[in-house]
Amino acid sequence: MMIFVARTSEREYNKGDEIAWYADGDKIVRNEYNPATAYAFDRVFGPHTVSDEVYEVLAKPVVKVAMEGVNDAVLTST
């Protein structure tokens, strides 16, 4: 499982919303207010990651095997 930690949007920033989670390297996500709370993933993409990197690491291998006839999926959520 992989996760992308996004930046706050302009709307969120204007409302005063804050990011409660941050990427600690490329495998761990920690809680800003309680750093002992952490979750491990196969890969963590930080807020400055570009779409091309996410595609190369996550989607490209899935698309490749799908083109070879293997059932596969990439699920996203915002």
UniProtKB/TrEMBL annotation:
It comes from the Eukaryota. This is Uncharacterized protein. It comes from Trifolium pratense (Red clover).
